[in-house]
Design goal:
Helix content: 40-55%
Oligomer: single chain
Order of helices and strands: HEEHEEEEEHHHEHEEHEEHEE
CATH superfamily of the largest domain: Histidine kinase-like ATPase, C-terminal domain
Bound molecules: adenosine-5'-triphosphate, magnesium ion
Structural class: alpha+beta
Strand content: 15-25%
Number of domains: 3
Number of helices: 8
CATH topology of the largest domain: Heat Shock Protein 90
C-alpha cells in the first residue's frame, strides 16, 4: 500500500514537473521571439543623418510588449559601451548577438527579474561602420502569472489523478490477490484429514502453484495410504500368531498342576489379550483415518442399526451379568446419512467401554433421541473406582484411566470413536455424574 502510494505520488510529481517545464519553456520562447521582433523594429527606425544617426522609438512595439501580462519594458541603445539613449543602468549582455540571432540573459533590475535581449547592428556613419548595440528588456510578469495559473489549475487535477491512480492500483492489486486469497482460504478451511485435490477456477498465473500444491497432497496421500496399509498388515500379522499363543497357553493352563505355573500362564494370557486388543485397535484406527478422508455415506435406519449393535454386545454383557437397557424415542423410520463403518466403529468402542468398565450385575442405559435436528445417543454406566476419573485426558491416544489398571485395553478406543464421529460432522462428549456414573454422548446431524 505504501509502495503503491509512493509510486502514484512519483508519477503525479513527474507529470506536474513535465507540464510545468514545457509551459515555462514555451512562454520563455514566445517572450524571446517578441523581444527579437522588438529589436528588429528598433533597427527599422534607425537611420543615419549627416554624421549622426537618429532613432524613432517604436512606441507601438513597446506598448505591445508592455500590454502582455502588464510587463515593463526597458531599452538601451549604446555605441562602444556608451549609452546613447534609454536606461543607462540596464545591465548589459556579455556577448550581444546579431539581428537575426540576438543573445538573451536574465538579470535582476529594479528589484524585478528581467529578460534582456541584445544584438549588435552595424550602421554606416560618414563612410565608417559603427556597431550599435541594442538592449531591450522585459519583466517576467507574464511568465510568472502563467506558471502560477498552471499551478492553480493543475494541482487539483494532479491530486485527482493521484487518487485515481491509487484507486486503480488498489483495484488491480485486489484483482490479482483475490484468487490467491481464495486459494489460501480453501486450504485454511480444510480439516487435517482432508487430502483431496484442490479444484478451483483460478487465473493462469497461479495454475503452477495449484499444480505443485496438488502434487504435494498426492504425495502425502500416498505416504498415508502406505502407512495405513502397513499398520493394517502388521496388526493382522501380529494377531494370527497371538491367537495361537493364547490357545496354546489356555491348553497348558488346563494341564498345569502347580499354582506357580498356572499363575505364569494366566499372566501370559493377559498379556496376549492386551496385545491382541492393541493390534485390533491399531487396525481400527488405521481404518478410521483412511475412511475419515472419504466417507461413504449411506442412509441408515437409526433404531435398527443401534439395536443390532446392542445385540452384538449382549453376550459380553451377560458374561458379567450386566443388563443393557436400550430405550429409543426416535421414530422407527428415521434415517441418517453416515458412513456405516465409521458410525459402527464409534458406537462399538463406546459400548465396549461401558461393558468393560461397568462393575458386574449393574445396568447400562442406552438412550436414543432426536433434539434440534440432531441425533443423540447417550450411554450411561457405572464404573469401579475410588478416585474420580480425569475426563479431559481420556481422549488422548494411549491414555488410560485410573479405573483401567485391571482391564485389558490400549487406550485408543475413545480417540478412535471421536475421530470417526467428527468425520461424520458429529461430536462425542464424556461426562461424569455422582455415584461413579459415566455418560458418553454421541451427537450426529440428521
Ligand atoms: N464408559 C466408561 N466408564 C468408565 N471409564 C471409562 C469409560 N470409557 C472410558 N473410560 C476410561 O477412559 C479410558 C480411555 O478409554 P479408551 O476407550 O480410549 O481406552 P481403553 O478402553 O483403555 O482401551 P481400548 O483401546 O481397548 O478401548 C479408559 O482406560 C477408562 O479409564
Ligand atoms: Mg475402550
Amino acid at each position: 500500500m505504501l509502495l503503491l502510494g509512493t509510486v502514484a505520488l512519483g508519477i503525479s510529481a513527474a507529470s506536474y514537473a513535465l507540464i510545468y517545464t514545457v509551459v515555462a519553456q514555451t512562454v520563455s520562447a514566445t517572450q524571446d521571439r517578441l523581444l527579437s521582433a522588438a529589436i528588429a523594429s528598433i533597427v527599422d527606425k534607425l537611420y543615419t543623418e549627416d554624421k549622426e544617426f537618429s532613432l524613432d522609438l517604436p512606441y507601438d512595439t513597446f506598448s505591445l510588449l508592455g500590454a502582455i501580462g502588464e510587463d515593463r519594458v526597458f531599452y538601451k541603445i549604446s555605441k562602444r559601451d556608451e549609452t546613447i539613449t534609454g536606461y543607462g543602468d540596464l545591465p548589459s549582455v556579455s556577448k550581444p548577438g546579431s539581428l537575426l540571432k540576438p543573445s538573451f540573459e536574465e538579470f535582476v533590475y529594479r528589484n524585478k527579474t528581467v529578460r534582456v535581449a541584445a544584438a549588435n547592428y552595424p550602421l554606416i556613419i560618414s563612410g565608417q561602420t559603427e556597431i550599435i548595440t541594442i538592449h531591450i528588456a522585459q519583466t517576467k510578469n507574464f511568465e510568472e502569472a502563467t506558471l502560477r495559473k498552471i499551478g492553480e489549475n493543475f494541482i487539483p487535477l494532479i491530486i485527482i489523478f493521484l487518487l485515481a491512480l491509487i484507486l486503480l492500483a488498489l483495484i488491480a492489486a485486489n484483482l490479482i490477490t483475490k484468487p490467491l486469497n481464495q486459494f489460501a482460504n480453501k486450504i485454511k478451511q480444510r480439516g487435517p484429514n482432508d487430502l483431496r485435490d484442490i479444484t478451483q477456477e483460478i487465473p493462469e498465473e497461479i495454475i503452477p502453484v495449484l499444480k505443485s500444491f496438488n502434487g504435494l497432497i498426492a504425495k502425502l496421500r500416498n505416504t498415508l495410504q502406505q502407512t495405513e496399509t502397513f499398520i493394517a498388515e502388521a496388526a493382522h500379522h501380529i494377531r494370527t500368531p497371538l491367537a495361537v499363543v493364547r490357545s496354546e497357553s489356555e491348553l497348558a493352563l488346563r494341564k498345569s498342576k502347580t499354582p506357580e505355573n498356572r499363575n505364569h500362564l494366566r499372566k501370559i494370557i493377559r498379556s496376549v489379550d492386551q496385545t491382541n486388543r492393541s493390534a485390533t485397535q491399531l487396525l481400527d484406527h488405521a481404518m478410521v483415518l483412511y475412511r475419515a478422508e472419504r466417507p461413504e455415506k449411506v442412509s441408515l435406519v437409526l433404531n435398527e442399526c443401534m439395536s443390532n449393535l446392542v445385540q452384538q454386545f449382549e453376550p459380553a454383557a451377560s458374561l458379567k451379568d450386566v443388563i443393557i437397557h436400550f430405550a429409543s424415542v426416535v421414530d422407527i423410520a428415521t434415517t441418517m446419512k453416515v458412513d456405516r463403518n465409521l458410525f459402527e466403529t464409534a458406537v462399538r468402542n463406546i459400548l465396549d467401554n461401558a461393558i468393560k468398565y461397568s462393575p458386574a450385575e449393574k445396568q447400562i442405559d442406552i438412550k436414543c433421541l432426536t433434539s434440534r435436528g440432531k441425533y443423540k445417543i447417550e450411554i450411561t454406566n457405572e464404573y469401579n473406582g475410588i478416585k474420580k476419573l480425569k475426563i479431559n485426558g481420556l481422549f488422548k491416544k494411549f491414555k488410560r484411566g485410573s479405573n483401567a489398571s485391571e482391564i485389558a485395553g490400549s487406550g485408543l478406543g475413545l480417540s478412535i470413536a471421536r475421530e470417526a464421529i467428527v468425520a461424520s460432522k458429529g461430536d462425542l462428549k464424556i461426562r461424569q455424574y455422582d455415584g461413579n456414573l459415566v455418560c458418553a454422548t454421541l451427537t450426529l446431524p440428521l
